[in-house]
Amino acid sequence: MKFKLYYWPSIQGRGEFVRLALEDAGASYVDVARLSQKEGGGVSALMAMLAKHPSPVRPFAPPILEMGRLVIAQTANILQVIAPRLGLVPADEASRIGAHQLQLTIADFVAEVHDTHHPIGASLYYEDQKPEARARSKLFRAQRIPKYLGYFESVLAANKKSKGRHAVGRASSYVDLSLFQVMEGLAYAFPKALKRVAKDVPLLVALRDRVAARPGIAAYLTSPRRIPFNEDGIFRRYPELDV
Amino acid sequence: MKFKLYYWPSIQGRGEFVRLALEDAGASYVDVARLSQKEGGGVSALMAMLAKHPSPVRPFAPPILEMGRLVIAQTANILQVIAPRLGLVPADEASRIGAHQLQLTIADFVAEVHDTHHPIGASLYYEDQKPEARARSKLFRAQRIPKYLGYFESVLAANKKSKGRHAVGRASSYVDLSLFQVMEGLAYAFPKALKRVAKDVPLLVALRDRVAARPGIAAYLTSPRRIPFNEDGIFRRYPELDV
Question: Which of A65, A113, B53, B153 is buried deepest, with most CB atoms within 10 A?
Fold first, then answer.
């Protein structure tokens, strides 16, 4: 099965959660908008996909994954569909429901991360909402980071099957990969805040390190396919938001 | 199958999307936190559930649905699991993926609605973030309501199978019920903004009216089980945010 991913070519963003799953599994995929226009890529290919009404339902926003005759949007939805095919989720229904539940909670957290620099509106520049971004980030650092990371830590601790090494079941799943990305993103955007909470979430820190060492992920992270974090993405390093 | 729903007893909130599905299907369910403490209900019962580590994974937040031995959180996740059992989604995989994709986009919209009155932080009172709420709501009314409703309208229009009468497939699904709730919520919180856009989304308006007339929903809406919209929920009527 060859996958086609449609996502913004210059940021990690929400597409990165899908890229990590594909890379970890060694799946064959094309990151369409990163190809040249000559090769049928570029942002115009992404825009064309967004304007279409493919099956089953037109996407509202990227990431979008094309898989045979299916075109799937919404990050957690994509992961839920591809994970069984990639061997990245346990087979039983309860574990799959639990994995998806966790991924949706990660999605909620990611939306909150985005709004730390865009609390008034995504259509305005960050520079036009800096005081509000500072106010929102202050609460985000003091309350939301500890609350979410504490929650994920408790989920790891409660997963006796894996002795706290995996979010769901006995083996690595897409949720582990997404938790890695959350930790990496926070280390980039909120290094001081993360440092303050790190001692309280040792299982998450250890999980991040283990995921980084997985063969597919380690190869990916040092390849040109891994776009560096930058100030167009969701996790942005604005020192004034991490005091 | 008897369902137990755990959600805040005094608001519609995100739990309402689950209530609507259960009510439309005539399912047997208990809205646990709305029972008295004597009956094992109240907010304390909800809090006890949030503190537990049930199977498969501890919930981060309500709504939570208990179904036999499964305890499921995240609104869209709950709906995805119960819909096949309630006859509220087509049987084929593509339609289910599409329905879930739409529900996740509705969830994104609902999160944006919440942040119109809480742009800086959910832990602060609305009164402590009123100027920011006005700024965010202005963009929300001008850009986000037309964008989301225009998108949902285009999905209805593209669903030739139902001649624009349903979001997915040939019959009513949980997505139709959720779109009804979105339209009802906007009519309560942003009546002026909705009026401006209504003429551009005739299929959505017609869908809302048809859902309201479905027997299970019509009975529910006039029952004491339907909590009125209020200023503790997600859709809040603050006239200064709808000018």
Answer: A65
Q: Is the pLDDT of residue B1 over 80?
A: no
Architecture of domain A3-86: 3-Layer(aba) Sandwich (3.40)
**pLDDT tens for each residue of A92-141:** 999 999 999 999 999 999 999 999 999 999 999 999 999 999 999 999 99
Could you say which of 1.10.1760.20, 1.20.1050.10, 1.10.3720.10, 2.60.40.10 is the CATH number of the domain covering A93-214? 1.20.1050.10
What residue ranges in chain A does DSSP mark as E strands? Answer: 3-6, 29-31, 64-67, 70-73
| Residue B62, both tokens | 């309500």
Length of chain A as a residue count: 243
Q: B3-6 and B64-67: which strand pairing?
A: antiparallel
State chain A's mean pLDDT as an integer: 97
Q: Is A158 on the interface with B (CB under 8 A)?
A: yes
**A-B Cβ pairs (cutoff 8 Å, strict):** 128
Handedness of CA B166, B172, B178, B182 (dihedral sign): positive
Q: Tell me if B97 and A60 make a contact (CB, 8 A cut-off).
A: no
DSSP for B162-194, please give it: GTTS-SSSSS--HHHHHHHHHHHHHHHH-HHHH
Give the residue from chain A lying closest to B118, CA to CA. A119
Determine the average pLDDT of the residues in A20-46.
97
CB nearest to A56's CB, from B59, B95, B124: B95
The helix (H) or strand (E) run that includes residue B65 is strand B64-67
- Going by the DSSP 8-state scheme, the letter that residue B227 receives in this structure is P
- Percentage of residues of chain A with pLDDT beyond 90: 97
Alpha helices in B118-232 (DSSP H): 130-139, 145-158, 174-189, 191-198, 202-212, 215-221
Across the interface, whether the CB atoms of B60 and A139 are under 8 A apart is answered no
Global pTM exceeds 0.95? yes
Between chains, do A140 and B121 touch, taking CB under 8 Å as contact?
Answer: yes
Does A102 reach chain B within 8 Å, measured CB to CB? yes
ipTM of model: 0.98
Answer whether residue B87 shows pLDDT above 90.
Answer: yes
Query: Exposed, middle or buried: residue B149 (CB in 10 Å: 0-12, 13-18, 19+)?
Result: buried
CA A110 distance to own-chain centroid: 8
Distance of CA A215 to the CA centre of its chain: 19
